[in-house]
Fold this protein.
Amino acid sequence: MKIAFQSMKTIRWVVLLTVISGACRPSGPIFPAPNELAQVPFRLKTIRKQVDYGNPNFRGQDFTTAYRYDSLGRVTFIEDAWWNRDLEYRYQGDRLAARLTYVRDSLVFRETFEYDAQGKLLRLDWSGNGSKAVRTFRYNAEGRIEEIRYEALTYTYVQVSRYVWEGGNVVAQNEFDGAGKPQSEWTFEYAPAINPHALTPTDPDVPTSRNNLVRTTLKRDYTGLIDLVANPIVVAYDYNAEGLPKVGRYNYSGRTETFTYEPR
């Protein structure tokens, strides 16, 4: 499960992410670096999400995200019914060069990536709907993203997200405005099982934890509208014969996620 929520639909957007749009605002977790999971002989095929929000009008809503890969095993296309969008991934050599977001077959967002000589992502430029923004990245001594600075270029808005890592997992995410005023503080707890998203690293701008997220607590929210200290997000999982998460059940919105895999 990725952390970085993007709207209350995934709890916030990531829940980070996001926010402004799944593509436009900072998101949560990073991939393991180096990729400790390269030897696992499976990758994500689909994620099916079902919700009812405790409302009979939503009951039975069903969204499937499907992954396509090239001959090198890299993700080239994601059909994402949950966000009602498609993502196309374009590479230059062994690096992701561009990520394009389509809605109903129309290009709405374009993101391009800039790296240093060691292959670390330094900058992401985002454009769409007449707006532009940039994200810049800072790393810790282990080469994991420890800070993402998001700055809108067509209006005044800055957000800084900082990540605390332990054992290959993001255990805390703190967000600040451009003046350094705290906005929110998240903490995360994990099970020993592998995080399915870490098997299929698609987005170098999104910190992705190695293990499976089971509890999210919002310790501080500047809006005062969300209280996840008293009511943390909890996910309970069933596992398949290989020990990979098969079904995750959330303690809110009647949401379940079902994962399917395919051989690498």
Summary: The domain at 36-263 is CATH 2.40.160.190 (Porin). Confidence is low (pLDDT under 50) at residues 1-35. The longest helix spans residues 196-199.
